[in-house]
Amino acid sequence: MITSGFAYLAFILFFAGLVVLAEKHSKGKFFEYVPAVVLIYFVCMLFSTFGLWSKTPSVNAVYKEVKNNLLPAMIFLMLVRCDLRRILKLGPKMLLGFFAASTSIAVGFVVMYVLFKSNLPADSWGAFAALCGSWMGGTGNMVAIQGALNIADADMGYTLLIDSINYSIWVMILLGMVPYGMKFNRWTKSDTSAIDQVGAELSKHHDSLRKEMTFSDIIFLLGSALAVSALCQWAAGFLPKSDFMSGTTWTVLLATVAGVLCAMTPMYGLPGSSQIANTMLYTIVGLIASRANFAELTQAPLYILAGFVILGVHALVMAIIAKIFKLDLFTCGVASLANIGGVASAPILAAAYSDALVPIGVLMAMMGYIVGTGGGLIVGKILSVL
């Protein structure tokens, strides 16, 4: 049993490091189906189930201080590479496709909750709000909403379970649809001539960015992120509070705004922000999992079924919007996966169509980081009212 706060944090970081090394050397064969962040969560939760983590004052202090300070810093670094000016260059149809995907996912959550709420716990809306943040952006948005709404760590097990199982099947479906792109495009009567041009322009810009990360990059980004974290927490103390808008919620939103604004400065071109943000994300996920327990996942099948209902509504609404606005399958598929899968999988689907289109997948996924937290909070508010 771990009773020292330092040992507790060190063990979580050590295990996260082992997972990252395994991911690096597995060449994607295993982690293509089991993302590293999911493995970290469930193994740390397994350790918690067997009582490895002791909730002593020192451990509780480390949990609270590390999680509260790293969360806004992670959000800031996650958004530093999300330049809105470049995202707008995607063009109206691709932007329409992205926001259509986000909206249809939100509709899916509302429809699902109306159908399932009588069989779900009263506070389950929080877990689905966090999942909505993930399915509109990424795991970082999910963690941000968990902190903003003070969702119980135990409930996050359901969120990660749906995010892993349902997401993996959705990725396989979208990849399986690639050969049918021409038929889908004929059905929607879409024009794809502009996509290749946009992809070529974005690819040229991506190649011009500096790739090698230096020590000064790491120090500057890390210092900036922690400074923004401290300033956002300080500023949140002066803002009005309510049952839904707590101090942590304000901190998350302020960090989001700071990241989006700094992405339009020379900070955008600094390499290393995503690597540092992922390090913080893995640490936070490990800390959250250390407060969960497998014995609490008693309704896992119901939650997984609810996840498939959300995806079904999302697919139906996307098909209708594609027909009305003449969207092609590439735009619909990548927009969907940019929301549900994020930066880890949207570029893979884009590459299945053409390597030149990979930057479009990256930019769409980056846009998900911007809207994911706010979108999840709005859906969470709707579900809490229902």
TrEMBL record:
Residue stretches spanning the membrane: 6-22, 34-54, 96-116, 165-182, 218-236, 248-269, 300-322, 329-350, 356-380
Keyword Transmembrane appears in the UniProt entry: yes
InterPro entries in UniProt: DUF819
Pfam families to which the protein is assigned, alphabetical: DUF819
Keywords, in A-Z order: Membrane, Transmembrane, Transmembrane helix
Keyword Cell membrane: no
Signal peptide limits: none
Domain of life: Bacteria
PANTHER family recorded: DUF819 DOMAIN-CONTAINING PROTEIN (PTHR34289:SF8), PROTEIN, PUTATIVE (DUF819)-RELATED (PTHR34289)
Protein name: Uncharacterized membrane protein
